[in-house]
Specification:
Number of strands of chain B: 12
Largest sheet of chain A: none
Oligomer: heterodimer
Strand content of chain A: under 5%
Order of helices and strands of chain A: HHHHHHHHHHHHHH
CATH architecture of chain A: Up-down Bundle
Number of strands of chain A: 0
Order of helices and strands of chain B: HHHHEEHEEHEEHEHHEEHHEHEEH
Structural class of chain A: mainly alpha
Largest interface: A-B, 73 and 73 residues
Low-confidence stretches of chain A: 405-415
Shape of chain B: elongated
Number of helices of chain B: 13
Structural class of chain B: alpha+beta
Radius of gyration of chain B: 28 Å
Largest sheet of chain B: 4 strands, mixed
Helix content of chain B: 25-40%
CATH class of one domain in chain B: Alpha Beta
Mean pLDDT of chain B: 89
Distance between the termini of chain B: 114 Å
Radius of gyration of chain A: 22 Å
Distance between the termini of chain A: 21 Å
CATH class of chain A: Mainly Alpha
Chain lengths: 415, 347
Amino acid sequence: MKNYIRFLWRCFRLSFVGDWRYHLWMLILTIVALFGIHAYAGQFVHGLAVTGMSDHVSWGLYIANFTFLVGMAAAAVMLVIPVYIYKFKDMHELVIFGELLAVASIIMCLLFITVDLGRPDRFMHLLFRFNFPISVLAWDVIVLNGYLLLNLHICGYLIYSAYCNREPSRWFYIPFVFVAIAWALSIHTVTAFLYSGLGSRPFWNSAVLAPRFLASAFAAGPAFIVLTLFVIRSTTRFAVHDRAIELLRLILTVALTINLFLLGSEVFTEFYTDSAHAASAHYLMFGLHGHTTLVPWIWTSIALNSAALLILYSPLRRRDWAIGTACVAMICGIWIEKGMGLVIPAFIPSPIGEIVEYHPTWDEIQICLGIWAIGLLLYTIFVRVSIPVLTGHLRIDKIYETEARPTEPSAPLQP
Amino acid sequence: MSWDESSLPKPPTVDSGRRSFLRHAAGLATGAVAFGAALSPLREMVDAKHGYSAKQFFQKHYKEMSREEMNEVLARVRMEVKENYGVDADISAPAPMDGVEFVYALNLSRCNGNRACVYACVRENNQSRVPEIQYIRVIEMPRTSLDLERGNHHYGDEKVPDKDHFYLPVQCHQCANAPCVKVCPVEATWQEPDGITVIDYDWCIGCRYCMAACPYWARRFNFSEPRLASLKELAANPDVEAERLNPEMSYLSNRPRPKGVVEKCHFCLHRTRKGKMPACLEACPTGARKFGNVLDPHSEVSEILKSKRIFVLKEDLGTLPRFFYYFDERTPQTDIPEWIEGQEEPA
């Protein structure tokens, strides 16, 4: 126990250590997070009236970001499956970054849900009178928190084992890894069911929604991990195998292709049928009765996703910069598609035919950016701390170089 | 593995002595000040007059409260109303009556779109004036269509009815298979035995999933603290809120709502459970609104359901509304010859 607390303390200390780029990055994130906290304090006092939401569009950017991040969290499984099921060796060391991303994403998800609540002070009502299994939102509470615990356990156990320089006991984490695989699929499926189970919103009421969620998650998540790996490779001594990047590239190429195919299927069904149910889709893609706020967004998304796909199928795909560009493009594209493109149009027109558009306020945007900053801060710290542990530089029986005086050689101690 | 911490030399620190201390202290102070500044809007809340007691925090769900606990809560609400409005409220928690299931029937041939129901409802139910919350939405529909998207929600005609339109008031349909009740994660909304879907405003967490689930757009959210008058009106007359407050209230219906919770039409249960008619019905000058107990075969609504050609909105969704519409074929309001309006029968 004493050792564990010391481990946490050393990690905490280490999270303040880095070169100027690291400090600048962390400083920017901290400032953005503080602005977010400031805006949220205002919202807490004045209510959700500070947002652009209304009785018509009763969910906005918060739930949009939440939906996107559930996908990011679920995507860790795309690293876990090759390693633990197909025994793909070159990625073994990298799985942990996917799991840490899952932890950070779920924390962001929970924050987004919290800021969306009108009465966050009543959170404990979930414990006293929980509408399970009838309410899909109750399912979502369980799967998200369960997934967070699973990943915290797996990452925490593996990293602490490495820190203590002992072989992790397989029985203590392999079963959890396999549970987490199924669980990862469940978090995104349940979140999709949250929407697709509502007959009042024809735009969501589609069986293809859950598969679409999974496909877009398995594209955006690995894309984010690829970007992380590029950063790790260029700033640390951690060995990132080219074959790992290669495999991730294949995974996200396939996922993005499927995602665009499913989007196409949905577009066909809506527009060929062209019934009254297609009103929201019309609004999203072409505008409805002169209301066109979302039109540029969705076409930007489609353009970004298509561009990413073109790069991934072109001969350029083996170059790091091309993969990086494709990853950034598809993360942005999918963020729009799952957020602005999925959550908001379902509310427009309203179920009784009124068109009220949604424009997020600056407060709302600051809160969203703040939560992203908190999530990225956490993820940066997780990665920053776990790398020296995994490479064996930060050990229970060793003094890490940054803990020594800069002038001293960073020789490991002889036991 | 055996390893003894004491056998190791203490790791040297990055900096030592006073400089390091000062640096850390400065960093910590900057962080604390920045964090404090970020939280500064919360001060307004601390300054606010009304505290938030532990009792309120641990208040039980409506269905779990004993008689005494309910009385305590009602006393607290009464005290809050007195503090905020200076009015003695008559607040109760009437139970549903045995053998009663309420339904509403609305005669579309009679409704002329005057919106008297909307305003009566706002007054009766202490709905927020700033921001404006209304439970009833009257839609002006083209005579040739029932497609809600072709309706006009914001008609501002000098005179109603317009010849080429009919008027479709929509409010909570008190569905027997209510999607809003299904989705609530904390059972803050449920259906009472008399068919009314109610909300415990002290239990709702404000997730607004029910609003997404409602196919009739019947639910409203308190995006900010509800107010019965604007600041301008208050400046002109400080008692305006007290004058507007309807002191006859109940826990599940028209008591003042807190910020951040969902509310909606509850068939005026504080009236109807005591044998009165809903406020919207009483206000309607055309007699288009009919309300009653469907379990009583001789009630007016039972007769209407038996004899008229009725329909419900969005029947295909399977929500089984308790709110029925019908057209009275004999005297459609919009077909009244001009001589009746002018009260002068032609020869």
